[in-house]
Amino acid sequence: MVRVQFKMTYKYTLDRTSKKFSCPSCGKKTLVCYIEVETSRYLESTLGRCDRESKCAYHKSPSGNIPITSSVLQKIEEPSCHDDTVIGSYGRNYSNNNFVQYLRQYFCTTDIEGVIREYFIGTTTYWKGATIFWQVDHQMNVCAGKVMLYNGKNGKRVKKPRVFINWMHKVLQIDDFVLQQCLFGIHNLCDYKKGDTICIVESEKTAIIMSLFYPSYLWLATGSKTNLKLSVLKPLKDYKIIVYPDKSEYKSWNIKVEAFQKMGYTIICSDFLEDFKACEGADLADVMI
């Protein structure tokens, strides 16, 4: 499919390579500098954006950043979906699932089995003890499967010697898979009526734990702090939405929420964790546990 995409290209843009510079604000080597598009020349070292969005948020853009090109014809790829049977193929071996074993420390077997069915929690041997969080949209399309590895004792993500996150289409070596994410858990929307309250958090783990503590609400997850987008919220237009950002993320999420409110969404951003005495980056699950 070919569509006209109105995409502006500007004189200056943030460097897309992995090269980083010292941030003028926090001093860390996390500054992505601006470059001149036509020459790929770096601008002065103070012009850029710090990658530490939550802890620093430094961003200084160059003046005179005028557009140099306009619309282009671009091929738009249709999003891919997994086959419906893939979820059942990984719906076993929960004794070898670190995340499920972590839940067993705090919740009864019946409730855990219920939440496994409700959220399609899967297990894979891709990494020993790894969990699959299937993203199934409100029309029951299997959009994606995120593979994550947790510590079975403390419930924290394993980040050493590296971060253990992957996607099932990569695990299954589906080379032409076009990923388009949805909110984790939104397939359960069919059990709720228009006007009901829907709660959104960042991590899949938090959505599952909060659904165990407060099962009367539908708990969904964006999967990342940047994935609170209009495209994933569209199925929730007729519902009441409360978003619960992680500690220190209230400001960035509330800016988005205010924009959604102007579009007619009944949505608010909770500052509960900002007032709560929790460490930076903490979420509702950390507080409840």
TrEMBL record:
Residues 10-63 form the Zinc beta-ribbon finger putative domain. It comes from the Bacteria. It holds the Pfam family Zn_ribbon_16. Residues 97-247 form the DUF6371 domain. This is Toprim-like.
